[in-house]
Amino acid sequence: NGLIITAVVCDHRLHTPMYFFLLNLSLLDLGSISTTVPKAMANSLWDTRDISYSGCAAQVFLIVFLFGGEFSLLTVMAYDRYVAICRPLHYGILMSSRACVKMAAAAWASGFLNALLHTGNTFSIPLCQGNEVEQFFCEIPQILKLSCSDSYLREVGLFLVNACSVSGCFIFIVVSYMQIFRAVLRIPSKQGRHKAFSTCLPHLVVVSLFVSTAFFAYLKPPSISSPALDLVVAVLYAVVPPTVNPLIYSMRNKELKNAL
Question: What architecture is domain 1-259?
Answer without folding.
Answer: Up-down Bundle (1.20)
